[in-house]
DNA sequence: GGTTCCATACTACCATACAAGTATGGGAGT
DNA sequence: ACTCCCATACTTGTATGGTAGTATGGAACC
């Protein structure tokens, strides 16, 4: 667990890719930041080849924009793509949580409960970073329990823009308690197999994250397209 | 210079990527085919670098499997991923066709109608390849008309396995007339804004494509995981 | 002052050489 | 005949030099 922080996984290319992705999604590398193969290769102490490989992968996910012979930049947040990602997640999460109400492995249900406890602790510690990770983890467990983990991975690819706005909003207005409460209610609904109830909460949960996008565009105009 | 590049989308890397992807999805390169950077670079008359770049992108989409220091091969079709892709498409296409029944640009509606005409002609010509393309195009127009083209692109990434089974099934049982009829009925439902009707047809349309996956696994066992 | 042109310093793209891991086939030893 | 070992020919991973396209700043000119 600690080792992956130092040397994430396998090849140098994968390492650079994972580190850059984490830095971009966490806004440590703000939208619009210009990168370059050479500069990045120096920073990570590898050659340009694995850096270039990571750029290709990041570009495919829309996290960076490569302009041939001109440069590479962290992509700006595109409001339309944010809305699309939210739409996509709403549809799929609704369907998944409904599946979960029909059948959900006992072990995964326990994992959800454990995750909820961790969320409560993270909120008490005011640990936003951990809280965000646990939020992601909660939904991942949902998909995994329904044997739809591949779907979750695909969602992740489009979530680049969506997640960054979520982080921005949580900077301006930490509303972890509400998110926690929604997670808890979803857990109960699944446990009691109340599909309609679960789907309704999930819908609110998803729409919550998008409500005031205009506010964010005004507060952080340089981050948006 | 290089007239053989019929679709020279910019860089050599992109060219190789597009060509390989097309060959893989169309089963021209069957699942399990082993590739190699060197061999491919010779075939496309480029160096290993752009080939490697294309491999990275294809691997990210799950179209090829790269085993470090061992080789690269076209990925086998994974039944679970096929089912997941179908699930994903069903949820998203249902939601989109419902949106379309609420509001759909006149111009896009005309595009659908034109597409239907082309489908009929392709069926008469027994042009399976064109028919498949028109099928894809039909659904793409749907997403595009609802301003969800980004969603369609993400779907495409997971569709690698799903599409290959669809092609396999169409090899064994060409049922273009039924697909055309479903497309036509969806078009009518959208035009008359009958959301429930449209959603129902779309659901049947999606489930049709998956019905007899066991038959395919028996007929083409070497293509499946 | 304002415009044009060009040297320069970038950039990503590509080709190539080398490094390191892996499968394989043949020969030595038993 | 069978096992083990190792040379060898693969594979992908990495480093690096060169190429072509692009932005930029300053000089020359109007």
Automatic annotation (TrEMBL), chains A, B:
The keyword Transcription applies. It comes from the Bacteria. CDD domains: WHTH_GntR. Keywords: DNA-binding, Transcription, Transcription regulation. The keyword ATP-binding does not apply. Pfam families: FCD, GntR. InterPro entries: GntR_C, TF_FadR/GntR_C, Tscrpt_reg_HTH_GntR, WH-like_DNA-bd_sf, WH_DNA-bd_sf. Residues 10-77 form the HTH gntR-type domain. This is GntR family transcriptional regulator. It comes from Paenibacillus cookii.
């Amino acid at each position: 667990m600690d080792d992956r922080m130092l040397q994430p996984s396998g090849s140098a290319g994968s390492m650079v890719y994972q580190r850059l992705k984490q830095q971009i999604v966490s806004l440590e590398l703000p939208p619009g930041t210009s990168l370059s193969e050479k500069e990045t290769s120096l920073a990570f102490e590898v050659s340009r080849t694995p850096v270039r490989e990571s750029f290709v992968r990041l570009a495919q996910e829309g996290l960076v924009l490569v302009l041939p012979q001109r440069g590479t930049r962290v992509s700006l947040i595109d409001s339309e793509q944010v809305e699309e990602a939210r739409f996509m997640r709403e549809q799929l999460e609704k369907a998944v949580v409904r599946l979960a109400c029909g059948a959900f492995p006992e072990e995964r249900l326990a994992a959800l409960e454990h995750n909820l406890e961790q969320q409560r602790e993270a909120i008490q510690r005011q640990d936003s970073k951990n809280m965000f990770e646990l939020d992601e983890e909660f939904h991942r467990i949902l998909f995994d329990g329904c044997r739809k983990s591949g779907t979750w991975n695909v969602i992740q690819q489009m979530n680049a823009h969506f997640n960054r706005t979520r982080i921005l909003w949580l900077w301006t207005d930490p509303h972890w308690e509400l998110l926690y409460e929604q997670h808890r209610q979803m857990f109960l609904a699944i446990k009691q197999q109340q599909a309609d109830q679960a789907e309704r909460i999930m819908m609110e949960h998803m729409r919550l994250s998008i409500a005031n996008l205009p506010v964010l565009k005004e507060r952080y105009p340089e981050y948006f397209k």
